[in-house]
Amino acid sequence: MRARGIILEAAKRQKTEEALRKSEERYRDIVENATDLICSHDLKGTVLSVNDVAAKTMGFAAEEIVGLCVPDMLPIKWRNEFNEYIKAILRDGTASGIVKIVTRDGEDGYWEYRNTLRTEGVPEPVVRGMARDVTGEVLAKRALKKSEKRYRLLFERNLAGVYRTSIDGRLLDCNEAFARIYGYDSRDEAMQHPVVDFHVSPEAREDFLAAVKTGRTLIGIEIRGRRKDGSLIWLLDSASLVTGEETGLTEIEGMLIDITERKRTEEALRESEQRFRSLIENASDIVYGLTIEGVFTYLSPNWMDLMGEPAAEAVGKSFKPYMHPDDIHLYWQFLEQVNTGKRLISRDYRALHRDGSIRWHSSKGSALYDRDGNVVGYVGIVRDITERKKIEEELLRADKLESVGILAGGIAHDFNNILTSISGNISLAKMQVKPGSKGFDLLSAAETASMRAGGLSRQLLTFARGGAPVKETASISKLIEESSLAVLQDPKSGCEFSIAEDLWPIEADTGQISQVISNMVINANQAMPEGGIIHVAAENLVMEETNEMLLKSGRYIHISINDKGTGIEEKYLSKIFDPYFTTKKEGSGLGLAAVYSIIKKHNGHISVDSSLGTGTTFHIYLPVSDKEIPVKEADLITGDGKILVMDDDRMLREMVNDMLDVLGYEAEFAKDGAEAIEMYSKAKGSEKPYDAVILDLSIQGGIGGIEAVKKLLELDPKLKAIVCSGYSESPVMSNYLEYGFKGMMAKPFDFQTLSKVLNEVLKGTGNSSQGTGVREQKWTCEN
C-alpha cells in the first residue's frame, strides 16, 4: 500500500510539474509575443526578467537588462519615489501609475504600469507586471496643458478685447481689456450683462449675428458699440463660430479693438483734406505740382483765371511754354537752390497768358523728397503780381520824378521871375507901339517866345515837389482840339477828332492839361516818320469800383491818342515815362515824364497799348468835376486902390509897378517880409492904408509870403492878400485859402491875370486864382 501510495504521489507530482511546465511555456510565449512591456523584479528592484519589447524600449538586449536595478533607470528626482512604491505594493499587493524611465541613450520615456506582488510558490516575493509606453500621450497632454496656459495668458493679458458668447446672447467669457473698452470696472461686472448691451442697438446685434452665422470668419469689420455710460464707440471686430468644449454647442468667439480715436483722426483728416481742397480750389493763387523734369503733375482750378486755359489741359505739359523765354533761367536757378535743401524759394517771373499778354507771377515752392532723401518733385504756389508790379513801377517812377523835381525846383523860381519881368515889360512896350507896325510885330514875337519859355519852365515845374496843379472847373473839348492842332506843324500828318459833345467838365489845371495833349500829339507824330493820321478821342466813362487802373470808382473823361507808327518795343514799355529816357535822337526825354507827372497830380491815370509795326495808343483818365463851369469875365479889368507888393527881384518890381500904374492902381514895394510888415503896420494907422498886398512866396535870405501873411493877419484880420510864386515846395499855391490868402497868381503872369485877380480879391467876389498862364499860349516838347 505504501509503495502504491508513493507511486501515485510521484505520478501526481509529475503531472503537476508538467502542468507547471506548460503554464510556464504559455506564460513565456505570452511574454515574448506581447506588445506591452512585461517585467519582474524583487523587492530591492533587481530586474529578474523582461520581455524583448521592454528590453528594446530601454535600449538593451534582454540578457543585458536582467540584474540591473530599477531605481538606476529612473531620473534622480524619481528614485525616492521607488521606496514609496515598494511600501504601497507590500501593503496593497498591487500598484499602478506612470513612471518616467531613462533609456540607455539618455532619452526620457514614460510607462503606464500595473504591477502585482507574488509571494506563493516562489522562494522570495516577486513583483510582476505589465507596462505600456505612454511617452507620446504624456508629452501631448503636457503640450496641451502648456498651450492652454499660454492661451489663457494671452487671453487675460491681451490689449485687445477677447470674448466668447453664446448664440442666444449670453457673454460666456471675456478678458479685462474687453471690460475696459466698454467702460466697465472689471471683467466680472461686464459678465453680468447680456451681449445686446454692448451693441449700439438690438438691430445692430442681429445684423452682426447674421453676418457671423454665414459660417465665414469675419476679420476686421467696423461696428458701433455702446459703453457703460451710453456713449458710442467705434470697434474693429474679428469673430467666428466655434464649438464649445464643455457644452458642445455653437458659440461665437472674437477679438475687438477700440478704434474710436482712429475714426476721429480719420474724420478730422477727411475734414482737413476737404478744407484744404476747398481752399486750393477757391484760392486766388495757383497751387502746382512739378516733376523734377518740370512737367506739371497738378494745377489748381484757378489756373484758368490766371492763364486763360483749363488746368486739365496744362497738366502733363512742361512749364516752359507758359514762361517768358527770357525768364526760363530763373526756373533752373530755383531748382538749384531747392535741391540744396532750401525751402520756400521765391521767384518773380513773366508768364505768357493764353491770349498772348504778359503777366507777372511770383512763385514760392519747395522740394518733395522720398524716404532716401532724394528729390522727386516740387510743389508751390503762384500768385499773379501784375498789378503789384505796376504799382512798384509807378512808385519807382515817382521816385525818379521827385529826384528830377529837386533839380527843377532849384531853378524854377529865378527863371520865372526873369520871365515875368520879360513878358511884363514886353506887354508894356506893346502898349507904347502902334499895332501893325514892325516894332509891334517884333514885340509880339518876343512875347510869344517868352510864353514858350514859360512852357518849358512849367514842364520842369511839373516834376517839382509841391508843384500841385492850380485847378479850376473847365471844359476840355476845345482845349483838346486847340492843343493838338497848335503843335502839329508837319504837313504830312493830320488829326482826326472823335470828341463827345456832352463831355463832363473836369477839375484841372488847363495849362497843364494843354501841355499833356500837346506832348502826346508831338510824340504820336514823331512815331510816324512818313506822316499819318493821329486819332484823338474823348468820351465820358463811369469807372467801376474794381478796375485795372486802380482808380477810385466814379465818373471820368477818357482821352485816347492813337498813331499808326512803328510801335514801342516790349522792353521799353516800362521805361517810357521815366525822366530823360528816350529812343529818339532829337528827344529830351521829358515829354512823357511830364505827362505822367501831370496826370498823377490830377488823380488820373495814363496807360499805353503798343506793339511793333501796328502803332501805339495812349489812354488818359481824368476825374470829373461836380461843379459848374464859371463864366469868363473881360480880359482886362481896371481899378483903383493902394497895393503893397513884396518881391526880392528888382526887375520884377519895376515891371509890376508899370502894370499896376496902367491898370489904375497905386503901388508901393517891399523887398522882403519884414519890410512889408513894417510898411503895412505904418500905413494901417494912416489916412490911406493898403487895399491889398501881393506877397512872393519865396524870398532868398528873408521872410517869405507864408510867414509874412501870418503876421499881417495879426495886424489886420480882414487882410486881402494875394500869393505869387513861380515855384514852391509847399502846397500853398493850390490851397492858398487855408494859409490866409484870398487869391493867387503863378509866375509868369500878364495884364489880364493881374487885373482879374486884383479885381476879384478887392471886390470879394470869390476864390481868385490864376492858372499857369493865358489859354492862348502854346507849349512844345519833344520826347
Biggest sheet strand line-up: 2-1-5-4-3
The multimeric state of the shown protein is single chain
CATH architecture of the largest domain: 2-Layer Sandwich
CATH superfamily of the largest domain: Histidine kinase-like ATPase, C-terminal domain
β-strand number: 27
β content, as a range?
A: 15-25%
Spatial extent as radius of gyration: 60 Å
What is the CATH fold-level name of the largest domain?
Heat Shock Protein 90
In one word, what is the shape?
rod-shaped
Category from helices, strands and their pairing: alpha+beta
Query: How far apart, in Å, are the first and last alpha carbons?
Result: 181 Å
**At the first level of CATH, what is the class of the largest domain?**
Alpha Beta
Report on the biggest sheet.
5 strands, antiparallel
What is the total number of structural domains?
6
Helix count?
Answer: 22
Outline:
This protein is of the alpha+beta class and 783 residues long.
How would you describe this structure to a colleague?
The protein is 40% helix and 24% strand. The protein is built from 22 helices and 27 strands. The radius of gyration is 60 Å and the shape is rod-shaped.
Keywords:
783 residues; Beta-Lactamase; 24% strand; 22 helices; 6 domains; 5-stranded antiparallel beta sheet; alpha+beta
Chain-wise SSE layout:
Blueprint: H1 2-33, E1 37-41, E2 47-50, H2 52-58, H3 62-65, H4 76-92, E3 94-102, E4 108-118, E5 126-133, H5 135-157, E6 161-166, E7 171-174, H6 176-181, H7 187-191, H8 202-212, E8 218-226, E9 232-243, E10 250-258, H9 260-282, E11 286-290, E12 296-299, H10 303-307, H11 311-314, H12 328-339, E13 345-352, E14 358-369, E15 375-384, H13 386-430, H14 438-461, E16 472-474, H15 477-487, E17 494-499, E18 506-508, H16 510-526, E19 533-543, E20 554-563, H17 570-573, H18 591-601, E21 605-611, E22 615-623, E23 642-646, H19 650-663, E24 666-670, H20 673-684, E25 692-696, H21 705-715, E26 721-725, E27 743-746, H22 751-763
Parallel strand pairs: 17-19, 23-24, 23-25, 25-26, 26-27
Antiparallel strand pairs: 1-2, 1-5, 3-4, 4-5, 6-7, 6-10, 8-9, 9-10, 11-12, 11-15, 13-14, 14-15, 16-18, 19-20, 20-22, 21-22
